[in-house]
Amino acid sequence: MNNLKEITLAVCETAKQVGVFLREERKTFSLDSVEQKHDHDYVSYVDKTAEKKLVEALKRVYPKAGFITEEGTVDRSNTELNWIIDPLDGTTNYIQDNAPYCISIALRSGNDLLIGMVYEVCRDECYFAWKEGGAYLNGKPIHVSEKQISNALIGIDLPYNAESYKPVVLSIIDKLYGKVSSLRVNGSAAMGLCYVAAGRYDGWMEAYINPWDYSAGVLIVREAGGTVTDFNGKDVHSHHVIATNGILHSDLKAVLPPAAF
Fold first, then answer.
1. Do β-strands 81-89 and 102-109 pair in parallel, antiparallel, or remain unpaired?
2. Which of 141, 161, 190 marks a domain boundary?
3. Which residue, 141, 167, 201, sits at the end of a domain?
4. Pairwise CA distance, residues 181 & 250, whole Å
5. What are phi and psi of 5, to 5 degrees?
6. What is the Cα 57 distance to its own chain's centre?
7. Is residue 260 part of a domain?
8. Fewest Cβ atoms nearer than 10 Å: which of 5, 22, 147, 190?
9. Alpha helices (H) in 147-233, listed in sequence order
10. Nearest by Cα to 5 from 86, 54, 61, 69
């Protein structure tokens, strides 16, 4: 595939158009439209409609690809080449009218990430990357930070699996709080990854997340010069992710309790 840049830019435009829908719906959004998928895990007509809009547009951008989507509004998966879509990452933020929330789209061939795009609706920020093409924010190149752990700002988002993750996050907080610049929870895995890519965070970690949460962000961080692994230091094919500027990757792995995953 020789036109990754052109496809990536088309994906950005698609996301921005659907972002207008998200922004406008938020003005009249009612809590009555919210459904609970699992404990503390919500969805509404906004997520589902946004996903349908993205799927229809991406069929035109690159018709050969199948789809892996969070809300399952399309039954079309190609095991070799797939769009991976989260139509609204940060749904709880959206419901509460709290930033950030975003659209996350990746194009993956087998296990090889080709394109990553995350559009943050509240700040009108489009993060994107294509394989071996670098990482960008609104068209300008971005790069991870060069900070050491003592000066680092670390993101530690909290997954829905509270009881399972509680011992892990308590260990993370115990070992990092007061030893780094600060800790942050922003409520969006895709944005946590992009903040690492742009140097806003120096590291970020979360477990129990899915490919539509992290796939686009993983490529963006790597193309921005950062390091992304699972909690065991291996390539990300699981549900737990550490992303850093590379300098402090081993420091974040070290705060995990033994055999966390």
1. antiparallel
2. 141
3. 141
4. 17
5. -60, -45
6. 20
7. no
8. 5
9. 162-176, 189-197, 211-223
10. 61
Question: Going by C-beta distance under 8 Å and a sequence separation of 6 or more, which residues neighbour residue 30?
Answer: none
What is the tally of structural domains in the chain?
2
- Tell me which residue range forms the domain holding 82: 4-141
In a domain, 175, yes or no: yes
Q: Are residues 16 and 137 in the same domain?
A: yes
HEC per residue, 22-49: HHHHHHCCCHHHCEEEECCEEECHHHHH
pTM tops 0.90, yes or no: yes
- Residue 101 corresponds to which tokens in the numbers above? 């929330």
Q: What is the mean pLDDT of residues 238-244?
A: 95
- For residues 136-170, b (16+ Cβ closer than 10 Å) or e, as one string? bbeeeebebbebebeebbbbbbebebeeebeebbe
Summarised one tens digit per residue, pLDDT across range 72-129 is: 777 666 678 999 999 999 999 999 999 999 999 999 999 999 999 999 999 999 999 9
